[in-house]
């Protein structure tokens, strides 16, 4: 049985008040000695997307789910002049892990959480005990079209016109679409999910932050071969559970993991991008079985 999920903040990386959710078994006398599962969220969400999964995994593990700067309830002081890039996300997440004295962890990556988690793996390869990737991409063939056509056009030519054209990606209809598109039964997806994401994106200045991350995603593409080398040489236990109807990160991106790690388990689900909203039981059961099989 898991203890109730706690919501906390810790000050890291020169003044960032980083919000996170934490849970662990109710019977745990010292959660700090438990194996850790780190959940890294994606665009346009926050640790809220893991509200249900946390409880499923915390029956055995210490589960940590931070909000990245620019998302959820993490607060970045204006005086900090934070650079909203994937390099910064990596640095801040490492600072979070250090503040909590987490040296080793299994990482669940999704969307933007994937390049962030894999950048951490490059810096601290011995820290990763396992990878669970749920629509968390590391291969060019995983970039779905036409979703990425707009950002790719802006990467090639960051003109004001091309950057302005990305505004539709942070509109309400697009946010809702990310949740309901490809879902086998959209009626089971709570509307507070996409309403919360959209509300937080409408905070003053946050729209510019989101467009900045979309533009900076291009810095991850040259790192894909390094991520793949990590998979190939380190062979971390890997489970890819993938919403097969996702049009943002498409199934070839899941199947590609086996190219570099033949032992990777790839499972395509009848789900969309936010697969946890419709496939929680299946995903959580698969994760628990996977971690136990690998002695974690």
Brief sketch in words of this structure:
The chain has helices at residues 51-57, 86-99, 113-123, 149-156, 160-164, 172-180, 191-201, 206-216, 224-234, 251-255, 257-260, 276-293, and strands at 6-12, 16-23, 36-40, 62-66, 105-109, 128-133, 238-243, 265-269. By secondary structure, it is an alpha/beta fold.
Task: Explain the layout of strands and helices.
Elements: E1 6-12, E2 16-23, E3 36-40, H1 51-57, E4 62-66, H2 86-99, E5 105-109, H3 113-123, E6 128-133, H4 149-156, H5 160-164, H6 172-180, H7 191-201, H8 206-216, H9 224-234, E7 238-243, H10 251-255, H11 257-260, E8 265-269, H12 276-293
Parallel strand pairs: 3-4, 3-5, 5-6, 6-7, 7-8
Antiparallel strand pairs: 1-2, 2-4
Strand content: 15-25%
Terminal CA distance reads 18 Å
| Contiguous helical run count | 12
The level of helicity is: 25-40%
Radius of gyration: 18 Å
Tell me which oligomeric state these chains represent. single chain
Along the chain, the helix and strand elements come as EEEHEHEHEHHHHHHEHHEH
Overall SS class: alpha/beta
| Major β-sheet profile | 8 strands, mixed
The general outline is globular
Spatial order of the strands forming the largest sheet: 1-2-4-3-5-6-7-8
Mean pLDDT: 97
Strand tally is 8
Low-confidence stretches: none
């Amino acid at each position: 049985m898991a203890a109730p999920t706690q919501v906390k903040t810790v000050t890291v990386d020169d003044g960032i008040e980083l919000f996170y959710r934490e849970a662990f078994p109710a019977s745990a006398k010292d959660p700090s000695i438990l194996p850790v599962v780190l959940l890294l969220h994606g665009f346009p969400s926050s640790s809220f997307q893991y509200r249900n999964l946390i409880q499923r995994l915390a029956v055995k593990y210490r589960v940590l789910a931070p909000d990245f700067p620019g998302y959820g309830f993490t607060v970045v002081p204006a005086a900090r002049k934070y650079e909203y890039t994937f390099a910064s996300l990596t640095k801040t997440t490492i600072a979070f892990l250090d503040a909590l004295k987490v040296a080793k962890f299994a990482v669940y990556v999704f969307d933007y959480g994937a390049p962030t988690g894999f950048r951490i793996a490059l810096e601290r390869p011995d820290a990763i005990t396992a990878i669970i990737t749920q629509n968390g991409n590391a291969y060019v063939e995983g970039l779905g079209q036409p979703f990425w056509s707009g950002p790719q056009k802006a990467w090639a030519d960051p003109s004001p016109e091309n950057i302005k054209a990305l505004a539709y990606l942070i509109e309400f209809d697009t946010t809702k679409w990310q949740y309901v598109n490809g879902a086998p039964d959209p009626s089971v997806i709570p509307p507070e999910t996409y309403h919360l994401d959209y509300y937080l994106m409408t905070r003053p200045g946050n729209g510019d932050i989101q467009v900045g991350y979309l533009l900076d995603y291009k810095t991850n593409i040259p790192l894909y071969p390094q991520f793949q080398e990590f998979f190939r040489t380190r062979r971390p236990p890997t489970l890819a559970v993938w919403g097969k109807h996702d049009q943002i990160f498409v199934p070839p991106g899941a199947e590609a993991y086996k190219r570099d790690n033949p032992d990777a388990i790839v499972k395509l689900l009848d789900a969309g991008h936010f697969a946890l909203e419709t496939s929680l039981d299946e995903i959580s059961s698969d994760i628990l079985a996977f971690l136990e099989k690998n002695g974690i």
